[in-house]
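From the pipeline queue, job 12 of 40. The input is one protein chain; the requested action is below.

Action: predict structure.
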Amino acid sequence: MAKVGTMADIDDLIEPLITFRRDLHSHPELGFAEHRTSAQIEQALRAIGLDVHAGIGGTGIVGVLRSGGSDRSIGLRADMDALPIQEQTDLPYASRTPGVFHGCGHDGHVAMLLGAARHLARTRRFDGTVYFIFQPAEEGLGGARAMIADGLFERCPADQVYALHNWPDLPAGTAMTRPGPIMAAADRFEICLHGRGSHAAIPHQTPDAILAASDLVTQLNTIIARRIPPTSSAVLSVTQIAGGHAHNVLPPSVTVGGTVRSFDPEVQDRIEQALRQITDGIALASGTRATVKYDRYYPATINDPDAANEALAAATCVCRHAAMAPDPAFTSEDFAFMLQAKKGAYLWLGQRRDGETVPLHHPRYDFNDDIIATGLQWHVALAERLLAA
């Protein structure tokens, strides 16, 4: 296997990548609306000399790089959408779009993968095909699913797929992954309890949707403790209650919403069944009428064991410390759809600066540009390991 490039090999790439990343940060775009971002990436890939497939799944872009005569191939994926959050960093390159913000570091992921494409295109120390997949709409909208439905893997038939995510819980220069589940399945629910509404002074004339919703919240929070085996991992969180507009009016309806996270489809089934049973019971007891919307929008992200070992081996080549993660995270990731279609793995790349505790999706989050080189090298190491000349 060829030796992974040294820092000297990539030193000339880093400053342009930081500039590119910060430009994306200043011009964030939400899922399926990454038109400027997609155009910038396409232009950069074509400048490198790659074949480009544009418009996959809406705004998705894939650059294709071939070297040698092998029919082996891998896909390397970066997400590129921003979040509907108002940035509060006061950075010179802060978002210029009110209410839209790269608060998850996807701008950094794009820079890493673009840098890897540039480096592999000029060194070509591999034998096969690398697909550089720039995916839209990771933040809850299923961009990976859209790309797959639009023929991603028919046009770009990668043998394996890999992705990373910057991870503020880990120090910069470190990495973790694990075989099996690494990120949770994500479900969302919305329950509406319908009464009739009434003057608050005559509550006996209407089913009380507020009281029913209060009972519902209490009962929903017993599901994990009383319906799911202690050996299984799951989370149910009620995050929204909406109803009422005046102190002296019982509202005609109240909505309760939240999320469920799990790793096992059987546990997922059991939680949804329990949620529906509890809702039906409370509606019957309170005289309200209930409607339930339950959306399983992302499956669990499941790493292939062999691919996880490859991802970790590549990280060991470029990080000061790389290890198997003891536990999965309850956050979710739509790279899960790609891992349902192809063998592969997902890696957490540490990005925490000394003394920093700002998490992902926080209005003061900023991607750590110091890890662009590490992420670039990890992608390169994977390509050179798995497509060794």
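Job complete. The two ends are 7 Å apart (CA to CA).
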